[in-house]
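Support reply, case 0932

Customer input (verbatim):
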Amino acid sequence: MRKKQRGLTAIGWLILLIPLAIVFYAGIRLAPVYLNYMKVVRTLEQVSTELTSGEANAQSIHNSIEKHLDVESVDYPTVKDIKVTRDGRSWVMEANYDDQAPLFANIAILVVFDKTVKVGSAAAGGE
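Our regenerated output:
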């Protein structure tokens, strides 16, 4: 009698490894997008700790955001894409933007980011 075969065939390995390779490749393509998002979050949190609600105004917040984005070498989003609004007695900075990571050919991954930070406090929320 013949013994039963054990293991995977070459076709079995291909069926197993191709989806894993695609997921790995997508992760590599998404890494710069998420690193850029982390820089934006760090910028908003640094501006929040530098300025207090009493001394801040929309122009000073925009100027501070612009300086931090320049230091961090963030090209997108720009300071114009970050909304600064008044919420009662405090200021709120909101970075709500979309970014794309090209995958292959004309296929891209769209990632939506939403981060809100109050000026003068560590309160933050959303992604």
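We compared this against your earlier run and they match. Two observations from our side: Residues 33-125 form one domain. The beta strands are 82-87, 90-104, 107-118, 124-125. Please reopen the case if you see a mismatch on your end.
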